[in-house]
Design a protein that fits this description.
Length: 315
């Protein structure tokens, strides 16, 4: 068209869509794939026609920013993770609702302030990102993301503490017996089950040694139970949930502070990255029957299923 756009350019990028639009994101992903294959980009795209400049923010966006205490040009934090400068706030052509255009400090973005040939603000390549307005907050030292240093030691070397403890706690054959049993337990079941709780052994020092022999592997709870969810038959249920809140399948929850339902799925999906909750709503105010993009994650009546990130769900 006169803006230099191909058909695939007017379909929103799934990763840029709001988290509440899981079904639409799956459809957008399929549609972009079809259009990209059927109508590839021309080798010499038409030059962009300079159009009317977009306002930085509308009256509606101005009111929302005023309530948040934020202005265009302020430093903001996106979902408590990425830091940048607010460059745009308002409606866009790629999706409905109010969106914030942020220039990131690091090249962790997806664009240069333009989406599908429409220019909203200017920044360096890979420094621009668009997120729903609800995802940003004003930057403060308290909200600064904590840098991760995988190689940095988190605590003093363990052998120093162990040498001190051993010289004081080793009181005789009983302590050596417990130590031997603990070593046997660790060698048979691996580091996942360590460390054993010492309190029960201290309360039962006179019990026979058989009391501390390791249980069978079948009686050991699976590691997935640590996240509060039983093993599920659904795809990717209870996967990579170490940073997610503890929820259980079948537990009643409140979705985005408005709708109530029961957790039916917890894990990764094919329609969007990250961890998602699949919830069967009490009323037919959902978007599906537990399936998205032809993939079945759980079963419920039509219009009773909805997917949401854990941050939008509470007990």
């Amino acid at each position: 068209n006169d803006k230099g756009q191909c058909p695939v350019d007017v379909v929103p990028e799934p990763l840029d869509m709001p988290l509440e639009m899981a079904d639409a994101a799956a459809q957008a992903k399929e549609l972009r794939t079809l259009l990209r294959d059927a109508l590839p980009r021309p080798l010499t795209p038409r030059p962009l026609v300079p159009g009317q400049s977009l306002d930085l923010y509308s009256e509606r966006a101005r009111a929302h920013l005023a309530n948040m205490g934020i202005h265009v040009g302020d430093k903001v934090v996106i979902a408590g993770q990425k830091v940048g400068t607010l460059r745009f706030c308002g409606s866009t052509e790629f999706a409905g609702g109010l969106w914030a255009g942020v220039e990131l400090q690091q090249p962790e973005g997806k664009n240069d302030g333009s989406v599908a040939g429409v220019h909203y603000f200017t920044c360096r390549l890979k420094h621009g990102i668009f997120v729903p307005l609800s995802k940003i907050s004003k930057f403060s030292e308290r909200s600064r993301p904590i840098p991760r240093h995988p190689g940095a030691p988190l605590r003093p070397p363990r052998h120093i503490d162990l040498s001190r403890v051993k010289s004081k706690v080793d009181t005789g054959p009983l302590s050596r017996s417990c130590s031997t049993s603990t070593s046997s337990l660790d060698s048979r079941h691996g580091p996942v089950l360590r460390p054993p709780v010492p309190a029960p052994r201290q309360r039962r020092p006179l019990r026979p040694r058989q009391e501390v022999t390791p249980p069978s592997s079948r009686s050991t709870p699976p590691p997935s139970s640590q996240c509060g969810l039983p093993r599920s038959r659904t795809p990717s249920a209870c996967s990579s949930v170490s940073d997610a809140p503890v929820l259980r399948l079948g537990e009643r929850v409140l979705v985005i502070g408005q709708r109530t339902g029961v957790v039916r799925f917890y894990g990764k999906t094919r329609f969007a990255p990250g961890i998602w909750l699949g919830i069967e709503l009490d009323k037919p105010s959902g978007k599906n029957d537990g399936s998205v993009g032809g993939v079945k994650y759980f079963s419920c009546p039509p219009k009773h299923g909805v997917f949401a990130p854990p941050s939008r769900v509470q007990r």
